[in-house]
Design brief:
Order of helices and strands: HHHHH
Strand content: under 5%
Number of domains: 1
Mean pLDDT: 87
Number of helices: 5
Shape: elongated
Number of strands: 0
């Protein structure tokens, strides 16, 4: 289930698609935006959890709305920074979902969660 909740990947693909369309001076219709949302969401579910794979899935999203795949070259230079940000968003989303599921199942220990001493080194206690 870890590859299903890839929010950062879906967000990046949508933003990158709109950016590339603007650079090429192409207008996207409402149907194109809906197709970007659908394709980016499905691509983020199927994306492997390896660095840099978001660019490969971006090619699929660009082709779906008729944008040139060569536009990926515009963001490939900064993709490492984008990849780290995507990962942070993905991990945060996964942590939030695990807390919600634990709470709904009654396995969320609020005493440990709100413990002010948690995370301190033994020397500090």
């Amino acid at each position: 289930g870890a590859t299903i909740n890839m929010d950062g990947t879906a967000i990046m693909q949508g933003v990158a698609t709109v950016f590339i369309a603007q650079v090429y001076g192409l207008d996207l219709s409402v149907a194109d935006y809906l197709m970007v949302i659908l394709t980016a969401t499905l691509a983020s579910v199927g994306t492997a959890g390896v660095p840099g794979v978001g660019l490969i899935m971006l090619a699929m999203v660009l082709q779906q709305v008729g944008l040139p795949v060569e536009g990926i070259g515009l963001i490939i230079g900064v993709d490492r920074l984008l990849d780290m940000t995507r990962t942070a968003v993905n991990v945060t989303g996964d942590a939030m979902v695990s807390c919600v599921v634990a709470k709904s199942e009654g396995d969320f220990d609020e005493d440990v969660f709100y413990d002010k001493e948690a995370g301190k080194k033994l020397e500090e206690l």
